Backbone:
């Protein structure tokens, strides 16, 4: 072999080693700082943005993952002991924080029309309803969401074992939050958790884990479009509780009888809710033992409130699957309706079938959010990486066993007299429906002792109610009110007082 050829081969070998050593996933503890200014509620708000990763360590102090976060801090605040810190999570469980970051509470918002539908050109605009005027916010990406990743040396099975499960998720995120609060010097600030969808069991479980394992006590937890929080429904309650949502979706699409359709949505729904609790749940509990007359009358009432035919209701033994409802309600018009937001319409290949071919609302949202978030990180936050931004779908399999998060939140409230809870639900959300969100609150507090610290708010949109401009404005105002309600008066002790008999 000639000397020149040997040198060439050696050079190529060394280049190969250099390239292979330059792993994509190496920056586990680094940040980029930028500064910005937006107008919120008609007033200028200047802020600092910190974008980057903070590690997750194992018990021996070895880095096992890097969690990407974006932290916004208003810069004209001198005393942060009274400045709330919001810690924000999305759901999935594999969803990135993009949805609430660029849709709801952050300083910039994805460009959509007033009802939340995508428009071009894609991009972002100032969010004039952001809560950054009243609170600092950190958006956290759990492992395998956004830019967050485990170390490259970890096998997939080990990643799932350590990170992908209800309780695994809560444990490592609580430790991460503890480190973040310490690094940012926010221990004396009022702290809030806000979670959407699967983010709601996440923040519910965190409320207790932070108290018990880190002695970090919160002022508030906000549950946006909550799941069941591990609260059992059973076959009877689970089937019956869908009816109010069906009525809301049917009302929106003008499929209800004239007397119901002529009423406003929030005037119509209480009738359906009363029927569900007082009559339908007992009927469902009887199952096959009900008489033919009872069955026929129940089918008539369900059809009246759902917009479906009595024939279809009877064919399903009074229990209408959600996926069938999304296919059936507008079948005669050739459309399906959305799961997470039933205002959205889809077109299937065939009108026949038991479920829609695709989720119309998800496809619509991906139009807007995917290009916007990738553009935003690079051009507004100056965060550059060749990693893919995982919007969802990279946290399987997920261990859902041992989900007691609803009761965890109740226990955290019992232990902490300062802790308040607010639920925000969209009436047209068929995945985490508004009535089951109310049911959560009822079952979390069966003794009725915490009702003065619990609240529920409804909006005329779906799962991501904030995409609709009118609901964005009201929902963020509700957060501002919630902060005031959950802020104790100066010197007010965290204690329970016995009620005296008078």
Residues:
């Amino acid at each position: 072999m000639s000397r020149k050829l040997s040198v060439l081969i050696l050079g190529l070998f060394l280049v190969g080693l250099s390239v292979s050593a330059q792993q994509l996933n190496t920056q586990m503890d680094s940040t980029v700082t930028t500064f910005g200014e937006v107008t919120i509620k008609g007033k200028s708000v200047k802020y600092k943005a910190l974008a980057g990763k903070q590690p997750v360590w194992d018990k021996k102090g070895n880095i096992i993952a890097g969690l990407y976060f974006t932290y916004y801090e208003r810069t004209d605040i001198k005393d942060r002991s009274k400045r709330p810190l919001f810690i924000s999570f999305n759901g999935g469980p594999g969803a990135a924080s993009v949805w609430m970051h660029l849709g709801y509470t952050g300083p910039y918002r994805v460009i959509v029309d007033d009802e939340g539908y995508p428009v071009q050109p894609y991009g972002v605009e100032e969010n004039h309803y952001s809560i950054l005027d009243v609170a600092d916010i950190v958006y956290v990406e759990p492992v395998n969401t956004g830019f967050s990743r485990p170390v490259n040396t970890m096998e997939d099975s080990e990643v799932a074992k350590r990170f992908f499960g209800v309780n695994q998720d809560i444990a490592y995120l609580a430790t991460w939050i503890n480190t973040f609060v310490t690094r940012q010097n926010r221990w004396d600030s009022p702290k809030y958790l806000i979670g959407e969808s699967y983010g709601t069991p996440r923040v519910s479980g965190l409320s207790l884990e932070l108290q018990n394992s880190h002695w970090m006590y919160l002022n508030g937890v906000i549950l946006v479009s909550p799941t069941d929080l591990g609260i059992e429904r059973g076959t009877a309650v689970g089937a019956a509780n869908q009816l109010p949502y069906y009525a809301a979706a049917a009302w929106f699409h003008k499929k209800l009888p004239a007397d119901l359709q002529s009423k406003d949505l929030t005037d119509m729904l209480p009738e359906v809710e009363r029927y569900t609790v007082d009559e339908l749940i007992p009927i469902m509990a009887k199952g096959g033992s009900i008489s033919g007359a009872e069955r026929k009358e129940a089918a008539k009432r369900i059809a009246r409130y759902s917009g479906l035919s009595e024939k279809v209701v009877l064919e399903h033994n009074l229990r209408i699957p959600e996926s069938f409802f999304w296919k059936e309600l507008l079948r005669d018009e050739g459309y399906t309706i959305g799961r997470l937001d039933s205002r959205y319409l889809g077109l299937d290949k065939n009108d026949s079938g038991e479920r829609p071919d695709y989720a119309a609302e998800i496809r619509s949202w991906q139009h807007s959010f995917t290009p916007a978030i990738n553009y935003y990180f690079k051009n507004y936050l100056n965060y550059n990486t060749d990693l893919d931004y995982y919007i969802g779908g990279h946290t399987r399999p997920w261990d859902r066993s041992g989900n007691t998060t609803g009761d965890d939140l109740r226990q955290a409230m019992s232990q902490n007299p300062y802790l308040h809870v607010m639920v925000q639900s969209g009436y047209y959300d068929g995945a985490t429906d508004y009535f089951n969100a109310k049911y959560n609150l009822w079952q979390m507090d069966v003794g009725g002792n915490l009702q003065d610290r619990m609240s529920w708010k409804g909006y005329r949109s779906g799962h991501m109610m904030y995409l609709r401009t009118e609901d964005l404005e009201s929902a963020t105002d509700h957060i501002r009110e919630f902060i005031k309600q959950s802020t104790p008066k100066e010197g007010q002790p965290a204690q329970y007082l016995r009620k005296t008999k008078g």
Remarks:
- Residues 1-22 have pLDDT under 50 and may be disordered.
